[in-house]
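Record minuted for everyone:
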Amino acid sequence: MQARVRALETILTEKGLVDPQALDRIVDAFERKIGPRNGARIVARAWSDSAFRARLLADATEAANSMGFSSPVGAHLIAVENTPETHNLVVCTLCSCYPWEVLGLPPVWYKSAPYRSRAVIEPRAVLAEFGVALPPDTRIRVWDSTAETRFLVIPMRPPGTQGWSEERLAALVTRDSMIGTGLAKRP
């Protein structure tokens, strides 16, 4: 797939139909500016503002868009919250549906057939491969993202972060923690 994308990009560039610098700026924006930073800000606000957290769990699209992102979140974003009893994991079993506006570009593994099938069949084993070891009594809930419904996991807030600013909290939120294949960083 990567070879095909490179070949297509080369042909379009040679024909003058695509500016490679413009493509680089678009990719950079989704990787570093629009992407996971937006999701991290959403999670940090949910951690520090209980009213916002309630809004996010009730209507994630509205709550996320209320933060004024330059690229509004598409319709049907659903937020699910990790707790000591339940850990949420997001997968798209059909292809790679993913909330780009919140999480940035999807990682290669998210689009892979092994992740898409194994996350449903053996989620605990998949999480262990990502370094996430959960207590045996923690329930794992797998959410299947679709073109109509995208998910954002609100990871558990790390202990020792009370009184932190949203900016400082956002630095603890990773893309993987918002997919469920990781946990928030420890302070």
User: Anything to note?
Assistant: The mean pLDDT is 90. Residues 1-33 form one domain.
